[in-house]
Each structure stands twice: as C-alpha cells, then as structure tokens.
Amino acid sequence: MSPEFRDVDVIVVGSGPGGATVARALARAGMNVLILERGWDHRRRFYYGTYLGALIYTDRHSFLYTHEGLNIIRPLMVGGATSMYAGCAAEPPAWLKERYGIDITQEVAETIEELEIAPLPPDLRGRASTRIAEAAHDLGYEWFPQPKFMRPARGDISQCGARCLLGCRCGAKWNAAEYVDEAIEAGARLLTGVRVTRVLVEDGHALGVQGYKGRSPFRAFGDIVILAAGGIGTPRILHRSGFPEAGTGMTMDTTLMVYGIIPREKGIGNEPPMTWSWEDPEGHFMLSTLIDPWLNYPLVMMRQGWEAMRTWARWNHILGIMIKLRDEVSGGVYPDGMIRKPLTLLDQKRLERAIEMSKHILVKAGADPDTLLITPLRGTHPSGTVRIHDLVNNNLEMEIDDLYVCDASVFPEALGRPTVLTIIGLAKRLAKHLIEKMS
Ligand SMILES: Cc1cc2nc3c(=O)[nH]c(=O)nc-3n(C[C@H](O)[C@H](O)[C@H](O)COP(=O)(O)OP(=O)(O)OC[C@H]3O[C@@H](n4cnc5c(N)ncnc54)[C@H](O)[C@@H]3O)c2cc1C
Questions:
Q1: pLDDT band with cut points at 50, 70 and 90 for residue 2
Q2: Would you say residue 59 has pLDDT above 90?
C-alpha cells in the first residue's frame, strides 16, 4: 500500500531557505508541519563538502545544462542550495518594496541579528582577495567587504578556501538545514527521499500532494500546501498540477568568471570565497572575488580550449572576479523538461561592460594581461519562474486556494545579488500571513 499522510496543517515541499524558514516559523507557532524533501541529509557523511559529495548531491551529478549550455549547479538535499552556496548575504533590492509593495525590512533585520550576518574580519578576507578590492578602489570602484552567513567562531575559516563551495566542512557557514533541525525540534516532521510530482486539487482548493518515496507512490493531505522546491523544481510540479504557464520566463543572475595569473604571488584559491564585492550603481551587475574550486577548474576550462585548460597548473596563482548579471526575464523551464536561458541584447551589452571592467581591475591588481581568461556562462540562481504579480499574488498564493509558493521562483525580476536573505525574508512574511489566516 502506498504511504499516506493525513491531518497535516501544512505541507512544505522542499527544504532550502524558503521551505526551511516557513516550516520552522509555522512549527514554532504550533502547527502540524510535514516537510517533504527530494534529497537526503548528507551533512554527517564522510563525503560532505568534498568533490565526491558534490557529484553525489547535485542534479545530474553537476552536469545539468540549459539548452544554451549554461551549467547549473542544483543541490538536491536537506538545506537545498545553501548546502553549497558561498554564504553571501545581501539585503533585498529596494524595488521589491517600491514596485511590488513587499516590505520585508523587519524580517530581514531579524535574520541579520539572529544569524549574526556580517563581513568576515579583515584578517580572514584573504590577502589576494583584498588586493583585488584595493586595485578596484584605486580605479574608483568602492568595493565593500561582503556580508556573510559565516560565523568564524563556529569553524576555522582560514582553512576553507574555494572548496567551501562543495559544502561547508568546518561548520562556520549557516545552512538552511539548521532551520530544518529547529523545525523538527518544534514538532515538524521531515521525510527525505520524497519527490513530489503534483499538487492534488479539488474545487479550486489544494488538498495535498502526490509523488514518490523511493519507487513507491506517495500521498499527503493537508490544509495548506507550500511549494518551496526552488526555481526549477516548483514550476515542474506546477506543470503537472494544471499550470502549464509556470516556468514561462526565468531569471538566473547569469554568472561568468574572469581570471588572470599573478606571477610569483599567491592567488585567491585558498581564501574564503566572495569576501569582497561591488555593485554597479545602475544595478545591472555585481562583481565579487571568486575562483572555481581546484578540481572544478579544468572541467570548466575544458570548454574554453586547451590553452585555457592548461592554466590549471597555475591555479595557485590566479586572481578571479565573478560577474553576476542582473539578467532580464527570458527562456524558462518547460513542461518537456528543457531549461532555456538566452541572454537578451541588453544582457550581452551589460555583460561585456562587466568583463572589461573586471579585466581592468585584475591587471591593476597585478595579473599578467596576457593571461586573462573568461569562463563559459553559468547559472547559480534559477529563479523568477513563478513570479509575483504574475502567477502568485503579494501573499505568494496561487489562484488555487491554499496553494502557496515560497522560494526563488517568486522573484518578479532578477535580484542580481545573493538571494538567500531575501528568500528568508519572504518566507518569514508568508509564515506571519498564514498564522494570522489560520488563527
Ligand atoms: C554554487 C552556489 C553558490 C551560491 N552562493 C550563494 C550565496 O553566496 N548567497 C546567496 O544568497 N545565494 C547563493 N546561491 C543561491 C542560493 O543558494 C539559492 O538561490 C537558494 O538556495 C534558493 O533557495 P530556494 O528555497 O528557492 O531553493 P533551493 O535551495 O534550491 O531548495 C529547494 C529544495 O527543494 C527540493 N526539491 C526540489 N524538487 C523537489 C520535489 N519535486 N519534491 C521534493 N523536494 C524537491 C530540493 O532538493 C531542494 O532541497 C548559490 C547557489 C549555488 C548553486
């Protein structure tokens, strides 16, 4: 017989920052919360935070590509993509309140205080990374120490380096899985290895969800269903639930890295990722100090040709800048499974400007101009696939009653900056709305 769960107040699908935050808040308010997560909890496994781990817990073993060839790293595990994020925090963009009337100032302030979000102290920002920031400063760009979801008191950050993107082994970086733990302490139930395929709907109301636990069919019934399966997972569930228009258009904060070799000096590879950043005053892109982890580097560079790949031998001497483009809505996640993310002409123009600026900064920081390289484009923030004012209202509710979306899918535009703090803010706001509605 297929397992069934009944009499649940709230079903939360997905345990990334969106799902984990709303689940914790609702469980703490005394609701009977069931969290359904497709992946497993890998945190205490020997491979967590290693190259092997990154192959195990990402969609298609890290070889997921859009139709255009953008590589998407999509962690499928308890904690979602915060298991592999760079731990950067950015406040929500002002336009979220100005254009969409969504004010999460208080929720964000609470989170900053609770998680002690702050830049790393100067001695942990990395010498080579700081050198890039200083060079940028000399050129008139005021880079800032990037606020982080990292608490040096919890782990030895000085030993982390670029591989901290594979999963945090020292424990300094906050992960949404911690909110899942706290939700469970407050009474929520977590079922892992459950892939939700669709929402059960009757007479315009969401009744529950169905899917698979392993190979067995699975169903759960609850008063409220919250989809938090991420910018790709949520529209896929909605497609099978009678919303073929979900996933039409997408934002990605399309990313590209610019590298340059600094002869005879140490590069940024053994320094914490993204310790310094800068935002274009017009808000079209963000720059940060970053390099691909050692073993990822040749895999990425392979696509740029033999000469680019050979620079792997100098990985210890590379300075890197990551460009995060605030891209326009384009492409999408389609019902046949395809993901498309073409750059618009405007995106391309902005990207070219960002590349030129990055090269300029790297040379000023001491990189040999003959060694400058760019990586292929990639997508780290699949989002904007179930947009506010389009498929969900300001309370993140779909046109089906009691069906909500609480993840990066709801972004009405690309953020062009780290997403997690905004997602947490939105999730806390949704929890307040639901607590009020159900009281
Ligand atoms: C390498 C990398 C670095 C990043 N660095 C940063 C950073 O420094 N700062 C920042 O703010 N952001 C960063 N991000 C982005 C950020 O981590 C994501 O935007 C954010 O985690 C998205 O949250 P979410 O709740 O929307 O979804 P996710 O975190 O993707 O969580 C969705 C969850 O749903 C589960 N799921 C999916 N489908 C199903 C299904 N059918 N049934 C059940 N469960 C399902 C998944 O397994 C996953 O656990 C980074 C991302 C990556 C990949």
A1: low
A2: yes
Which residue's entry shows tokens 């594979």?
A: 166
**CA-based nearest residue to 405, from 384, 421, 419:** 384
Ligand 1: which residues within 6 Å by Cβ?
Answer: 13-19, 36-39, 73, 76-77, 80-82, 84-88, 165, 194-196, 228-231, 233, 237, 380-381, 407-408, 418-420, 423
Q: Provide the greatest CA pair distance for the chain.
A: 69
414 CB neighbour count, 10 Å cutoff: 25
Contact by Cβ (8 Å): 150, 120: yes
For 92, which DSSP code?
A: P
Q: Separation of 225 CA from ligand 1 center, angstroms?
A: 19
Mention every residue, 6+ apart, whose C-beta is less than 8 A from residue 215: none
Dihedrals phi, psi of 365, to nearest 5 degrees: -80, -5
Q: Which residue has the higher pLDDT, 283 or 216?
A: 216
CA distance 260 to 267: 9
What element of type H or E holds 199?
strand 194-202
Ligand 1 center to residue 339 CA distance, Å?
16
Exposure of 402 by Cβ count < 10 A (0-12 exposed, 13-18 middle, 19+ buried)? buried
Distance CA 31, CA 224 (A): 11
Atom of ligand 1 nearest to the CA of 73: 53
* Beta pairing, strands 4-13 & 33-37: parallel
* Topology of the domain covering 4-438: FAD/NAD(P)-binding domain (3.50.50)
To 5 degrees, how large is the angle CA 51–CA 56–CA 62? 75
> Quick check: 14 and 230 in contact, CB under 8 A?
yes
Rounded distance from Cα 89 to ligand 1 centre (Å): 14
Work out the angle at residue 345's Cα, subtended by the Cα atoms of residues 93 and 98, and round it to the nearest 5 degrees. Answer: 20
* Terminal Cα distance for the chain, rounded: 35
CA 47/CA 339 separation, integer angstroms: 29
CB 26 within 8 A of CB 434: yes
What is the tens place of the pLDDT at every residue in 112-168? 999 999 999 999 999 999 999 999 999 999 999 999 999 999 999 888 888 899 999
Q: Whose CA is nearest to atom 13 of ligand 1?
A: 85
Listed range (151-160, 251-260, 306-315) with the worst mean pLDDT: 151-160
C-alpha separations of 391 from 33, 78, 341, 431 in Å: 25, 26, 20, 19
Give, as one character, the DSSP assignment of residue 38: S
